[in-house]
Amino acid sequence: MQLSEIREQIIAGLHQARPDVPDIGGATRIVQDLELDSVAVMDFILSVEDRFDISIPLDRVADIVTVDDLAQVVERLGNAERA
Amino acid sequence: MSIFDKFDHLRQTYDSLGDRAHNPFSVSFDRIESATEGVLGGRRVILLGTNNYLGLTFDQHGIDEAVRAVQTLGTGTTGSRVANGSYAGHGALERDLAAFFGRRHCMVFSTGYQANLGMLSTIVGRGDHLILDSDSHASIYDGARLGHAEVIRFRHSDPDDLYKRLRRLKDVPGSKLIVAEGIYSMLGDVAPLREIAAVKREMGAYLMVDEAHSMGVLGEHGRGLAEAAGVEADVDFIVGTFSKSLGSVGGFCVADLDGFDILRVACRPYMFTASLPPSIIASTRSALQRLDRDKGLRTQLMANATQLHGGLRALGLEVGPHISPVVSVALDEPEVAVRFWNALVEGGVYLNLALPPATPSSRPLLRASVSAAHSPRQIQKAVDLFGEIGRELGILPAEPFVELPRIAVGAV
């Protein structure tokens, strides 16, 4: 799956979690800009893992700040699993 | 600019909970009178938030043994077991625990937190995989962070989700260790351990169960959820604590696997900390004997848990899904929860307040823990007070609901 497609799907998921925030993009910071608490972030990451059939190790979750960061991690893990 | 600026957000939240006398996170007892009563701000309160499940903190034999130990062996060991040597009691307690759980090996740690920190940071390493329940205790998460294994989470108490995650790792080399808890400390819910054990067998993983809140509580002999669910043979490591049913402080891990003892010189949270003092070892050994011998304590504990869970549920409050000694009431608004907590203390009942994000589902919890030492009258007083305050705060209607059927922990 292309990075842009992954990003779009993540953004669609975030729109579901925060329907009141109109402009979510690649540079949106998931915790700070969307004001999700740690439980909501964890639920969102679990749903992303299901959507792409991957598991994101916790140390990599810690490095994710923006939507683009998450999309890149998903792309790399997806490719690694297919390899 | 201060080094503490990074805590500004936390400071605001903490300060918003009220001054020292009314802040649920700065409770300081004037004195403790018994396993079930104390004095807080000059007011006598029922202790309903202690994890003192068997009520053994004032057990006379335990006190006598601790006094004898402190008089004959001194107040502390002043060093680690590896560098400064073990006392006879350390080994004796390890043999007692191994025998109690029917396992060959045991290691005792200085706290329950350190038991998880030590085991999880050591037994899996680089190239291995830790698969944690998403609602795991902080000590499990911290142990995972201290070590070098790759850490992933499965949805809380969801064996299908666990299976899916292990399936993704099927052809990946390295040991896989699943971690679950017997009773989860926030809602008192019990893990579906039989199903988790079946996944473990099928996928060839190791399984660790933290029985901190279930030792002395579940199982015919009090060995915890693994015993109650009939899957002890599938559980490779059991960790637990002395600070709940055993009424002191410390932690342990028991196992049957060959080679376990090498951990004594590999596990840093075991090696680089002072060992437990003789008085603690003595009272813990005494409490373990009582736990093993006196099944009536568990019967009374579950009767008390049933009374509190059923009473709060009958009022119309939202309690956890299982009857266990942890009975939590979920509320919606943190501000209301803080007012509720203060009113309970003022009315003579002390319990714990847990606020998100330290709670599952982002909801505040009034968390009670029942003891075998509580009298039915004390429990009833707590239930009545919950009803009174709930109605005052508009959480409950004027008349109580009809009692609903419940799921018993004994059915797991």
From TrEMBL, chain A:
- Superkingdom is Bacteria
Q: Where is the Carrier domain?
A: 2-78
Q: Known SUPFAM superfamilies for this protein?
A: ACP-like
Would you tell me the protein name for this molecule?
Answer: Acyl carrier protein
Matches recorded under Pfam families: PP-binding
**Gene3D superfamilies to which the protein is assigned, alphabetical:** ACP-like
Q: Which PROSITE patterns match?
A: CARRIER
TrEMBL record, chain B:
The record's Pfam families line, in alphabetical order, gives: Aminotran_1_2
Q: Which cofactor does it need?
A: pyridoxal 5'-phosphate
What GO terms are given for molecular function? pyridoxal phosphate binding; transaminase activity
Q: Does the keyword Transferase apply?
A: yes
Q: Where is the Aminotransferase class I/classII large domain?
A: 44-384
Identify the keywords attached in UniProt to this record, alphabetized.
Aminotransferase, Pyridoxal phosphate, Transferase
Checking InterPro entries in the record gives: Aminotrans_II_pyridoxalP_BS, Aminotransferase_I/II_large, AON_synthase_class-II, PyrdxlP-dep_Trfase, PyrdxlP-dep_Trfase_major, PyrdxlP-dep_Trfase_small
> Membrane-spanning regions, if any?
none
Keyword Metal-binding on entry:
no
PANTHER family under this entry? CLASS II AMINOTRANSFERASE/8-AMINO-7-OXONONANOATE SYNTHASE, LD36009P
> What's this protein's family per the entry?
Belongs to the class-II pyridoxal-phosphate-dependent aminotransferase family.
Q: What is this protein called?
A: Pyridoxal phosphate-dependent aminotransferase family protein
What is the organism field in this record? Solimonas terrae
Q: What is the lineage of its organism?
A: Bacteria, Pseudomonadati, Pseudomonadota, Gammaproteobacteria, Nevskiales
